[in-house]
């Protein structure tokens, strides 16, 4: 089985016949996973603020607007891009309309894939396991898609990609198959294994980490770097353009 990693949403090529795992650790995919774990009915990723307001009007209630620009809550929105805001009492039974600088664009960039899963540190093992379950004669590879930061490579996403690649490799080897890794998948796995015992220090060198820290969002960072604390795997359904747990 072939496992590849894309460094940014903008680098994605044709994913036809593959299962994609979309990652934006700080913070969109952590938000989506948390919101759905806490009972949100669905999350609808949209590219622009205008699209979000338009969709909210069309839905006529029972929806929440969430997202950020430059890591800050968008004026007029109900929620920002902190997973800690998406509490059960706020999101349960609601549709969350989400627009972010990187993560929602990465989801849209993955739409040529056969299956699209949402991953982060919070659900890394569950996401990798779900990806393996989707494989068949028609779906023979996994593409781990890092959102990146404004079109640039991001250490936080790369570390999470490395974790997921490592989980995939270990599970594939258990069934006596030999995985084939792209160069970047190999490098991300090696990065993760080298720094796994102190990921926060490693990721502290990321530009986006520093931006969040400057904004006083260290609690968000600490939350997003927890590994395997959630077992839900959000799935993006292209037909409905929404992320749900199926």
TrEMBL record:
Keywords: Hydrolase, Magnesium. GO terms for molecular function: 2-phosphosulfolactate phosphatase activity; magnesium ion binding; sulfopyruvate decarboxylase activity. Pfam families: 2-ph_phosp. The gene is comB. It is an enzyme of class 3 (hydrolase). It catalyses: (2R)-O-phospho-3-sulfolactate + H2O = (2R)-3-sulfolactate + phosphate. InterPro entries: ComB-like, ComB-like_sf. Belongs to the ComB family. Its cofactor is Mg(2+). This is Probable 2-phosphosulfolactate phosphatase. It comes from Thermosediminibacter oceani (strain ATCC BAA-1034 / DSM 16646 / JW/IW-1228P). Its EC number is 3.1.3.71. It comes from the Bacteria.
């Amino acid at each position: 089985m072939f496992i590849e990693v894309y460094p940014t949403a903008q680098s994605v090529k044709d994913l036809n016949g593959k299962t994609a795992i979309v990652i934006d650790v700080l913070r969109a995919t952590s938000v989506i996973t948390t919101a759905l774990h806490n009972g949100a009915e669905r999350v609808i990723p949209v590219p622009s603020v205008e699209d979000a307001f338009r969709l909210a009007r069309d839905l006529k209630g029972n929806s929440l607007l969430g997202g950020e620009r430059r890591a800050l809550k968008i004026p007029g929105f109900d929620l920002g891009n902190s997973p800690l805001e998406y509490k059960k009492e706020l999101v349960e039974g609601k549709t969350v309309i989400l627009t972010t600088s990187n993560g929602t664009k990465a989801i849209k960039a993955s739409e040529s894939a056969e299956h699209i899963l949402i991953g982060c540190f919070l659900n890394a093992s569950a996401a990798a396991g779900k990806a393996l379950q989707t494989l068949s004669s028609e779906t023979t590879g996994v593409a781990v898609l890092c959102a990146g930061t404004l079109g640039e490579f991001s250490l936080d996403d790369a570390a999470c990609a490395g974790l997921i690649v490592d989980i995939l490799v270990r599970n594939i080897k258990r069934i006596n198959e030999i995985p084939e890794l792209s160069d970047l998948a190999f490098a991300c796995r090696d990065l993760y294994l080298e720094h796994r015992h102190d990921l926060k220090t490693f990721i502290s060198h990321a530009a986006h980490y520093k931006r969040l820290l400057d904004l006083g969002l260290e609690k968000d960072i600490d939350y997003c770097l927890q590994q395997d604390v959630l077992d839900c795997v959000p799935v993006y359904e292209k037909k409905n353009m929404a992320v749900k747990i199926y």
